[in-house]
TrEMBL record:
Organism: Duganella dendranthematis
Protein name per Swiss-Prot or TrEMBL: Methyltransferase domain-containing protein
Keywords: Methyltransferase, Transferase
Gene3D superfamilies from the UniProt entry: Vaccinia Virus protein VP39
Domain Methyltransferase: 48-137
Membrane spanning stretches: none
UniProt cross-references to SUPFAM superfamilies, sorted A to Z: S-adenosyl-L-methionine-dependent methyltransferases
GO MF annotation list: methyltransferase activity
UniProt keyword Methyltransferase, yes or no: yes
């Protein structure tokens, strides 16, 4: 019988089907930055650990330079698939695919680089932050310092008010949407620039709860009926070039329960709170917004997402 964590993992997306992994392999916006960042971070002869290996592709990128790669995967079906795929590729023999829980696994020796791609917009659903924080504590207890290099190194999260079209061939449905970052959507109007609400540095201790209240100056007249959540992963900092290797994930747009009429120059206040790895509805339930007018008017209060 599955324990509570295993049940939650299945629900939150840890046990995703193989065809979804195909979509990730096809996503060049994801694959190319990871390949570049791993090539930069993994030096010849390095020892590497990947937590949540999936098909094993990121471990395989590391194997081109590493002397040994430990690839940890919790889903037994994906363990079998990863072993099969790696056997078909050069250097695949350097990768040991281990069926284990990333919350509990430690390698048998110190490692130089830890790769973890349990990532979702807003650090929701997937357990990236909790897994890394747990790993750091257990690794230091067993091996002492220093900690390995983490990939990604950091995450920047931002939020932005929108006027979002929810008409689908005449059917009105305010629904959670995911949008590609390189596509212009005519039904999406940015009502103010995005504001950063959290920066995660995996080289430092991190809290598991994000609580934020911030203000926006509305740039155009319209109706604010959604909030866009933006997540940029800093896979590696390239110090000698003063640059970074980044992965900007697709946008997540959450509808507001009650749209807000806004005018250019109005000040919009937004607040929310959620736990890293939590379900999307947990963020929706906490999402609050109100418009603070420059004139001496009472604030227009908007209820939490129903």
């Amino acid at each position: 019988m599955l324990n509570e964590r295993e049940i939650e993992s299945c629900y939150l997306g840890q046990f995703i089907p193989l065809h979804y992994h195909h979509n990730m392999l096809m996503d060049q916006n994801r694959m190319h930055p990871f390949k570049s960042a791993i090539a930069y971070a993994v030096k010849p002869g390095a020892k590497v650990l990947e937590l949540g290996g999936g098909t094993g592709v990121l471990s395989w990128f590391a194997a081109s330079q590493a002397s040994k790669v430990y690839c940890v995967e919790f889903n037994p079906d994906m363990v079998r698939e990863a072993r099969k795929f790696l056997a078909l590729n050069p250097n695949g023999d350097k990768v040991e695919v281990i069926h284990a829980d990333a919350f509990e696994y430690l390698p048998p020796e110190p490692v130089d680089v830890v790769i973890c791609e349990m990532l979702h917009v807003g650090m929701l659903r997937e357990k990236q932050v909790e897994v890394i924080e747990s790993f750091k504590r257990r690794y230091l207890e067993r091996f002492g310092g220093p900690l390995p290099i983490f990939l990604p190194e950091a995450v920047i999260m931002a939020v932005q008010p929108l006027q979002q079209e929810y008409d689908f061939e005449g059917f009105y449905a305010p629904i959670v949407q995911f949008q590609e970052t390189t596509v212009i959507y005519p039904g999406t109007v940015e009502m103010a620039p995005p504001a950063v609400y959290s920066i995660i540095d995996f080289n430092q201790p991190n809290e598991l709860v994000y609580s934020w209240q911030g203000k926006f100056v509305v740039e155009r007249n319209g109706e604010i009926n959604a909030m866009r959540f933006v997540t940029k992963n800093i896979l590696q900092v390239v110090q000698e070039r003063s640059s970074t290797i980044d992965w900007l994930m697709g946008y997540m747009t959450l509808p507001l329960a009650t749209p807000i009429k806004a005018r250019e120059g109005d000040v919009l206040q937004v607040s929310f709170q959620y736990r890293a790895g939590g379900a999307i509805p947990s963020l929706q339930a906490s999402l609050q917004a109100e418009v603070l007018y420059e004139a001496a008017l009472q604030p227009q209060r908007v209820a939490a997402f129903a």
